[in-house]
Design goal:
Layout: H1 2-54, H2 58-72, H3 74-84
Length: about 100
């Protein structure tokens, strides 16, 4: 009877070893794939950084965008000027109904 169990144990150990090998191979392939994808993305980012560093027109673009924003929103300047002087507004100028909601009017 010992002879019968030993081949089964050897066979099961062999199958377990093969199973672990397959699992390790699959995980290694996944890791290699992830590492290669990371290397590709890092390479692309390095190329973009080199392109941005070599481009002398970048500050001009930022200044142009800032000028466009300031010309498109002149009301922002008015608001900031008005909000800085709180002494010009009197409590009598603003009614209390604007601060509190009393339900239907």
């Amino acid at each position: 009877m010992l002879n019968i169990k030993e081949p089964q144990q050897d066979n099961s150990l062999f199958l377990m070893e093969k199973r672990f090998e397959v699992i390790l191979e699959i995980s290694n392939k996944k890791l290699v794939k992830e590492v290669s994808e990371l290397r590709e993305s890092i390479g692309k980012l390095e190329d973009e950084i080199k392109l941005l560093r070599s481009s002398p027109k970048l500050p001009q673009i930022i200044q142009t965008n800032a000028n466009l924003q300031s010309t498109n929103n002149p009301s922002e300047k008015k608001i900031s000027n008005n909000s800085s002087s709180s002494q010009e507004i009197n409590p009598a100028d603003i009614s209390i109904e604007k601060y509190f909601y009393f339900g239907k009017k």
